[in-house]
Amino acid sequence: MPETRDDWEERLKEYLSANDLRLTRQRHLIAEAFFETDGHPNIDELYLRVRRRAPHIGQATVYRTLRLLVDSGLAASSRFGGAATRYEASDEDSHHDHMICTECGSITEFNNEAIERLQEEVARKHGFAMHSHKMELYGLCRKCSEREPGSPEPPKEAR
Ligand SMILES: [Zn+2]
Ligand SMILES: [Zn+2]
């Protein structure tokens, strides 16, 4: 999601100052660690990344800063079927949906124009003014569905 990753600093500053908040060193460091992380990290994974650079920052601060990023629209969060909340940089220009493997936890992104159009059509038919959506498909990823029954489980993917 190149656009958000390039201009997050300006956009975050704007959002914070509109809410009488400042881009403190801690917030900057946490946001930087977040936008450098690919995939869909959860709070523990981000906290570990932040701690490597700044051991004094607590998990609560990381959490609060992530909430700010979500509230500002710079990040999106999802629970993906009740597991720990996962975060990713959000960008309206590169919308995508997710397939979640219930066996290994891997998350695959996809984007399908026909599905996007159909959703808008359905909303329109119901007189529903849709401003966003989340589509999550649950099942087995290719690796897991091809695995022989009884063979050892693959390691959980941290994405
Ligand atoms: Zn899998
Ligand atoms: Zn994603």
What can you tell me about this protein's structure?
The chain has 6 helices and 5 strands; from the N terminus they run ααααββββαβα. By secondary structure, it is α+β, with helices and mostly antiparallel strands. The protein folds into 2 domains: 2-89, Orthogonal Bundle (Arc Repressor Mutant, subunit A); 95-146, Dna Ligase, domain 1 (2-Layer Sandwich), CATH 3.30.1490.190. A hairpin with a 7-residue loop joins strand 1 (75-78) and strand 2. The mean pLDDT is 88. Residues 40, 88, 96, 98, 109 line the site of one zinc ion.
Annotation keywords:
alpha+beta, single chain, 3-stranded mixed beta sheet, two-stranded antiparallel sheet, Arc Repressor Mutant, subunit A, 159 residues, Dna Ligase, domain 1, binds zinc ion
